Prior knowledge:
MetI-like fold
Amino acid sequence: xxxxxxxxxxxxxxxxxxxxxxxxxxxxxxxxxxxxxxxxxxxxxxxxxxxxxxxxxxxxxxxxxxxxxxxxxxxxxxxxxxxxxxxxxxxxxxxxxxxxxxxxxxxxxxxxxxxxxxxxxxxxxxxxxxxxxxxxxxxxxxxxxxxxxxxxxxxxxxxxxxxxxxxxxxxxxxxxxxxxxxxxxxxxxxxxxxxxxxxxxxxxxxxxxxxxxxxxxxxxxxxxxxxxxxxxxxxxxxxxxxxxxxxxxxxxxxxxxxxxxxxxxxxxxxxxxxxxxxxxxxxx
Length: 284
């Protein structure tokens, strides 16, 4: 009988979605090594910038208002958006595991305090808070934006992980671990969390996807990273340059399509994993 991992690997939806995600990621990871400098202004023989040239064999995605290669910008923007998403996702997951896992297992006042903190962050308007904080910071690097998003995107992870852990805490294998003298940290890290790896992986994927969307949202209103190309930053420029009015479709369609495809495909992967692996709590 095939294992759950083998069933997942054979799933056609999972294969297609994985290929799409890998292709987009490779554009961001490998693409910048094979494209021009995204900030380089390309000029004609008379010295004027090659502004708003449509896609051609020389410029696969055309040029922008300053005569820069749009394909080079897209590749770098994918890489930077992925960087923000991964940083935010990992940070949010770490906080979620600590508060919804380690502290929840302790129970008592510790768990109640952690649960109260989680509830506070759950009701906070995340996007509004990020907008306020970002507006105060005049210089925002990719790392800073990723950390800010992660600091306000962990509460739902902590709540989900806590509910799973509280159920697992009553299982026989946890009771055996307590009887053998293992400490709380050891029980959570070695007994409970390994039985939640599939669910934790789903949380990470959703966290990365949501972080990419949040970054694009704050970037489109001018409060994203100030020193780097991202998919959201390109969409912000597309709006400010009124590319839809001048017919420069090659500037706003690629980043918009990539953003939708990447985040949507990640969510589809989580749905497929949930169907195939059925990450429910293990029965004894």
